[in-house]
Design brief:
The complex is a heterodimer of chains A (259) and B (263). Chain A is α/β, with parallel strands linked by helices and 259 residues long. Chain A contains nine helices and ten strands. Chain A has a six-stranded mixed β-sheet. A four-stranded antiparallel β-sheet of chain A has the order 2-1-4-5, covered by helices on one side. In chain A, helix 3 runs parallel beside helix 5. The radius of gyration of chain A is 19 Å and the shape is globular. Chain B has one domain. Chain B contains nine helices and no strands. Classes of the chains: A alpha/beta (259), B mainly alpha (263). At the A-B interface, helix 2 and helix 3 of A face helix 5 of B.
Chain lengths: 259, 263
């Protein structure tokens, strides 16, 4: 199995208000297999979003290396970093849609700025994508006029425009009601089946998010535990993981264990 | 916070140095954006319209009232020496070399600079700038450099409008309301204003334009890492206030420096 992303002994810390240092990642090693879905879970403030930002080169590591398709991101600068980022599609927590652009312009932006396609080609491509994501008829609306679920769909449509090989999802269902979340999961499964990208999902939505996972990574106190499947987590004997399982999955999953 | 005063001083010193470094980095990238393709001409035009045409009303009224006050004040002072014939010269020199560039820069910082800072700040906190980075679209080329260029185009033009309207305001006050003769007002202006004076005014307006757009856009861009700014909407409001205050102060400081060096 080839890995799309590999962390080698990565350390990332932040200065705390009281002058101390908080290690968000304290010598972390893991790899994300290509073509699979990895879920990164953990309580708030355990460094899930930081991990994504490190992968994208939006933050610098203190030490260690991050390999993406064999290239060390931490050593890349400027144009090389830009080229590497073209491999990624990112769905941001808040959607990060450009609020002064319409839905159409948002989705067309990567094509306009990054490719040499003609206006007609872009028009066609965007129309097709919008239809795929059930957004036809909303082209001229602005992000503020859309519901949360629609904003996420637009964000996903935009992230998919350049056909990335790795998709990053930062809390894809935060702030959505259960029906909407379900819709996003279906959309994820559909696009994943169609495009076959490697994906990393950072989420609190446990246990539902595990339905999508091929691999689960739990973050705790700067360390990571990697599990081959959601079931494996429950077999772990580490106390903090048992506590985590108890808190987040509750009795539904416990009852499976007892049998 | 650290309790030891020396540690606190060192901490602040380091922060100020880091901040200055960030600002320098920002300026460098903004200029590099000029040479990256494709250049967004429409965005530039939109920004020139926003900064330039959008500021005309406030510039017009500020200039008119400044010019009229200068006319009255100048008349009052010059009259004591029987030198009211010099009014045209006094008003136009003051406006062209000092008040035109400075007041234009202050008004533009308040009106357009604050808007630029808030816009970029909101784009930062809502992750829109990260999104651009992730799509490998250089945010500088995409929307910051056009703002720089637009400011450098609009500010000197606004300053020119300010000068003309202000001189006209002085004319209304001095000639219309007081008893300065139209001929001596115009004549005084023509004989005393030299190319050197006009050049000084233009250089000032370019420098002020750079200061205002640099400080305002960089404060917005770095909203997340500015000490004491806090988070979310409040952080944007704080850095916007800071941007306007800093850019206004630096305009005044540089006004003195430029006058001292170039006069």
């Amino acid at each position: 199995m080839t890995s799309a992303i590999a962390f080698k002994n990565v350390v990332k810390s932040f200065a705390k208000r009281d002058g101390g240092i908080q290690y968000v990642l304290d010598g972390v090693d893991f790899s994300i297999p290509a073509g699979k879905t990895t879920v990164i879970a953990g309580g708030s403030g355990t460094g899930k979003s930081v991990t994504l930002k490190l992968v994208l080169g939006l933050m610098q590591v203190d030490s260690g290396q991050i390999f993406i398709k064999g290239r060390d991101v931490t050593a890349l600068r400027g144009r090389e970093l830009e080229q590497l980022r073209a491999e990624f599609g990112v769905l941001f927590q808040g959607g990060a849609l450009f609020d002064s652009l319409t839905v159409f312009e948002n989705v067309a932006l990567p094509l306009r700025e990054r490719t040499k396609k003609s206006a007609e080609e872009i028009q066609d491509r965007v129309a097709t994508t919008l239809a795929q994501f059930e957004l036809t008829g909303h082209e001229e609306k602005y992000p503020a006029q859309l519901s949360g679920g629609m904003q996420k769909r637009v964000g996903l449509a935009r992230a998919m425009q350049l056909q990335p090989s790795i998709m990053l999802f930062d809390e894809p269902t935060t702030g959505l009601d259960p029906v909407m979340s379900q819709e996003i999961y279906h959309l994820f499964a559909r696009t994943k089946a169609e495009f076959g990208f490697t994906s990393i999902i950072v989420s609190h939505d446990i246990p539902k998010i595990f339905n999508l996972a091929d691999q689960v990574i739990l973050l705790h106190n700067g360390k990571m535990d990697v599990f081959g499947s959601p079931e494996e987590i429950q077999w772990s004997e580490k106390p903090y993981i048992q506590e985590f399982v108890q808190k987040t999955m509750g009795d539904i999953y416990q009852s499976h264990l007892v049998e | 916070m650290k309790s030891n005063p020396i540690a606190r001083l060192g901490d602040t010193g380091l922060y100020v140095l880091t901040d200055l470094g960030r600002m320098a980095f920002f300026l460098l990238h903004a200029f590099r954006g000029l040479f990256r393709r494709p250049f967004r001409v429409r965005e530039l035009v939109r920004q020139v319209h926003f900064i330039g045409a959008g500021s005309l009303v406030v510039i017009f009224f500020t200039a008119l009232s400044t010019g009229m006050v200068l006319g009255l004040q100048g008349y009052y002072s010059l009259n004591k020496f029987g030198a009211e014939g010099m009014l045209g010269s006094a008003v136009s020199l003051t406006l062209i070399m000092e008040l035109g560039p400075v007041l234009t820069a202050l008004m533009v910082a308040g009106r357009a600079g604050s808007a630029i800072c808030a816009e970029i700040g909101i784009m930062r906190i809502s992750e829109q700038i990260d999104a651009l980075d992730c799509m490998a679209i250089d945010p500088f080329r995409y929307f910051i450099t056009p703002k720089f260029l637009a400011m450098l185009i609009a500010m000197p033009l606004l300053t020119a409008v300010f000068d003309v309207v202000g001189i006209f305001g002085g004319y209304i006050a001095g000639v219309g309301l007081m008893d300065v003769s139209p001929g001596s007002y115009i004549q005084g202006m023509q004989s005393s204003v030299t190319n050197h004076d006009i050049r000084l005014g233009i250089i000032k307006s370019f420098v002020f334009a750079l200061l205002v757009v640099w400080i305002c856009s960089a404060r917005g861009y770095f909203v997340g890492v500015i000490r004491g700014a806090g988070f979310g909407a409040e952080s944007v409001s704080r850095v916007t206030t800071q941007a306007v205050v800093f850019s206004s102060i630096s305009v005044l400081v540089f006004d003195y420096l430029l006058t001292a060096v170039l006069l």
